[in-house]
UniProtKB/TrEMBL annotation:
Species assigned in the record: Bucorvus abyssinicus (Northern ground-hornbill)
Keywords from the named record: Centromere, Chromatin regulator, Chromosome, Cytoplasm, Cytoskeleton, DNA replication, Kinetochore, Leucine-rich repeat, Nucleus, Repeat, Telomere, WD repeat
Chain positions of WD repeats: 412-446
Protein family according to the UniProt entry: Belongs to the LRWD1 family.
InterPro entries xref list: Leu-rich_rpt, LRR_dom_sf, LRR_LRWD1_dom, LRWD1, WD40/YVTN_repeat-like_dom_sf, WD40_repeat_CS, WD40_repeat_dom_sf, WD40_rpt
Lineage: superkingdom: Eukaryota
The protein's name in its UniProt record: Leucine-rich repeat and WD repeat-containing protein 1
SMART domains according to UniProt: WD40 (SM00320)
Transmembrane intervals: none
Ranges where the Leucine-rich repeat and WD repeat-containing protein 1 WD domain occurs: 289-678
Length: 679
């Protein structure tokens, strides 16, 4: 039953009233109201309401049909609002306040200035001049850019006589392209710009092609950037810890040889380096038909476009999350990836290439990022799931970022030396492992922040390592019991079960592998480690030009009970790989599609599709593959040019696919993030 009744409205009227239609001022603050409590049928009777106070409630959005035709003043302070576009239903609104709504940003201020033509005061400030600029100058500039983008890239794609399907297809491509490429104003307003560009583009198509205009689209997902209060230069706006900085989505001064981005009419045989990737193996039985979508330069030191030295190290796709009111047909969690390198962490939409958010710490060099989903209490009786991003690096500090709120809400001083890698437990949402150059792996409970972002982190366990841990992986069938680590001096396993008394533990097993001479060794750097499925481990590199696949269960079972001991890895197969002796080119897996990925020292991405082998490996007596397995395909790095000069010596530090292998994100040694899409 709704908390709002006719009697309550009459009682909370100022002054009290006997009839709803006579109420001009209404105070509904501090009633713990939720969006569902605002009954449009009841509010439609408030025909003469001019002032409404909804502050200090739990509203996350406004219903679209409250029907308050005479509303002039609205107070929404201290709520949980996520979107402001529904406020356009109050066209006479002159004064609006919505301070202390953590999900609203500067982008939302600009949206209401555009939507509400009569708005004079926003959060107590006179915005008359700025609003006029937004409605007139900003709109005129964006309209010009949208029109130019159509003329340059899309007009020739539409034949003189076109079908409805052709129009539908060109509309979809144009809307995606124009939102990605049309840039105007400070980077802190990129989300507002994208919102307006989409609106202008739809109006343009409706006018030019006679398409039906969607006049009431769903509110877009907030891809806001926690902007500064003033329009600073990108370099100034990026300095604050946890704040979002420059969103230079594309490498403006880098070109791909022999083609232009997003051109669809290149002739075959023209040497187009952005066409379908070529197989570079002896067996060309399978071609995954991956195409490069974007090359981004978004981790530059000091936002410099001349920075081709910053190393990019880690990327992880955001977990799926029900976005509710923030659902957006353009941007979804499944294609959003977090990347890190240098002083920044970026969130990128893989389809559009848009850098959605950017976090910078001027004194940091980030090495690793990891996601978890926390169920947070946002009121006394309401819980909501939010994705939290952990980022760590050279300073030994873990930054905790509430992405939806664009807020770095805390940090954990985890180690006194750099943190090489981090990962969350798949079964305990608050359990975070940090592996450090201090030769320790620590398990932390990061806690769950309250509505004021107060949290308490505690250290649960410390694993002693003989050398620096480089990669860590929880064993899929028992992630609360065993952890594997690839280290500078070998591959180790620990029992991490928390029911044991000791808080500091030594390894239980060290695995030995064949070396170049064929003899078994434990002393080698393992800089790549991942599980292909519940049992098959993929690791490198005890032998040049080789990636090993081995059985966790059959290897560890040979240890038996008792003290720690050396065990031989039960090798299932070897994968052909580059003969380079360069370290820290790590590997990854896509278990759902049974793929292994690893980059090389020449910009190539080696892909291995192993579905034909895994069934045989799963048997208790599965035999080792006799020959090295060649890559299914090698994606060749295109010829990129910066300021007219070709980029050389491109090392692929990391390659990660999303769980469905739709997108492949490639991190390089030259400050370029490449995004490929599987056709």
């Amino acid at each position: 039953m709704s908390k709002i009744t006719t009697e309550l409205l009459l009682e909370r009227a100022v002054p009290r009233s006997t009839r709803l239609r006579k109420i001009e001022t209404l105070n509904l603050s501090k009633l713990q109201l939720k969006t569902g409590d605002l009954d449009p049928r009841l509010f439609s009777r408030l025909r003469h309401l001019q002032k409404l106070d909804l502050s200090d409630n739990l509203l996350d959005k406004f219903p679209n049909s409250l029907t308050l035709p005479d509303l002039r003043v609205l107070n929404c302070n201290n709520n949980k609002l996520e979107d402001v576009t529904a406020l356009k239903q109050f066209p006479l609104l002159e004064e609006l306040t919505y301070e202390n709504n953590v999900y609203l940003t500067l982008n939302d201020d600009y949206k209401v200035m555009f939507l509400l033509q009569n708005l004079r005061l926003l959060n107590g400030k006179d915005i008359t001049k700025l609003a006029n600029h937004v409605r007139c100058v900003n709109s005129r500039k964006l309209t010009s850019k949208v029109t130019a983008h159509w003329e340059k890239f899309f007009r020739d794609q539409l034949p003189e006589k076109y079908t409805a399907e052709q129009v539908k297809s060109i509309k979809k491509k144009f809307l995606q392209s124009v939102q990605t490429n049309v840039v105007y104003g400070p980077s802190s307003l990129s989300e507002f710009t994208r919102w307006r560009v989409k609106m202008i583009a739809e109006e343009f198509l409706a006018y030019s092609l006679g398409l039906e205009l969607n006049t009431d689209p769903e509110p877009e997902e907030k891809t806001e950037e926690n902007e500064e209060e003033s329009a600073e230069s990108p370099s100034e706006a990026a300095e604050d810890v946890g704040q979002v900085g420059d969103l230079s989505s594309y490498i403006k001064n880098v070109t791909v040889a022999s083609s232009k981005r997003k051109r669809n009419h290149s002739k075959s045989g023209s040497g187009n380096k952005r066409s379908k990737s070529q197989a570079n193996t002896e067996e060309e039985a399978e071609d995954v038909s991956a195409e490069p979508l974007h090359f981004l330069q978004c981790h530059s030191k000091g936002n410099s476009r001349e920075d081709f030295k910053t190393q990019l190290w880690s990327c992880v796709f955001e977990p799926l999350l029900d976005c509710g009111a923030r659902k957006d047909p353009i941007v979804s969690s499944s294609r959003t990836v977090a990347t890190c390198g240098g002083e920044s962490v970026c969130l990128i939409d893989c389809e559009t290439g848009t850098v959605l958010k950017k976090y910078k710490v001027a004194t940091e060099e980030f090495f690793s990022v990891a996601w978890t989903t926390l169920t947070m209490v946002i009121s006394d009786s309401q819980k909501k799931s939010h994705n939290i991003l952990a980022a760590a690096g050279r300073r030994g500090i873990v930054k905790l970022i509430h992405v939806a709120a664009d807020f770095c809400y805390g940090e954990i001083k985890a180690h006194k030396k750099p943190i090489a890698t981090v990962c969350f437990s798949p079964t305990q949402e608050t359990h975070l492992f940090t592996a450090s150059y201090d030769k320790r792996i620590a398990l932390w409970d990061i806690g769950i922040p309250d509505c004021d972002y107060n949290f308490k982190a505690s250290q649960l366990l410390v694993l002693e390592v003989l050398s620096i841990p480089l990669r860590i992986a929880l064993v899929p069938p028992c992630p609360e019991q065993y952890l594997l680590a690839g280290c500078e001096s070998g591959c180790f396993a620990w029992n991490i079960k928390l029911d044991k008394d000791q808080k500091s533990r030594h390894f239980e097993a060290i695995f030995q592998f064949p070396d170049e001479d064929g003899s078994m060794t434990t002393s080698h750097r393992v800089d790549g480690l991942a599980f292909l499925n519940d049992d098959v481990v993929v690791s490198k590199s005890s032998k040049p030009g080789c990636i090993y696949l081995w059985s966790w269960s059959r290897s560890f079972d040979t240890k038996g009970k008792g003290c720690q001991r050396t065990v031989s890895a039960v090798i299932l197969a070897e994968l052909e790989w580059s003969m380079t002796d360069l370290s820290y080119l790590t590997l990854s897996t896509c278990p759902a599609k049974e793929y292994v990925f690893c980059g090389d020292e020449k910009g190539g991405v080696w892909m291995y599709h192993l579905s034909n082998y895994t069934t045989a490996w799963s048997s208790a007596k599965g035999k080792r593959s006799d020959k090295r397995i060649p890559p299914t395909q090698i994606l060749k790095w295109p010829e990129l040019r910066a300021n007219g000069e070709q980029l050389t010596e491109i090392f692929i530090n990391n390659v990660v696919s999303d769980p469905t292998f739709t997108y492949l994100v490639v991190l390089t040694s030259v400050n370029i993030t490449a995004i490929w899409k599987k056709s």
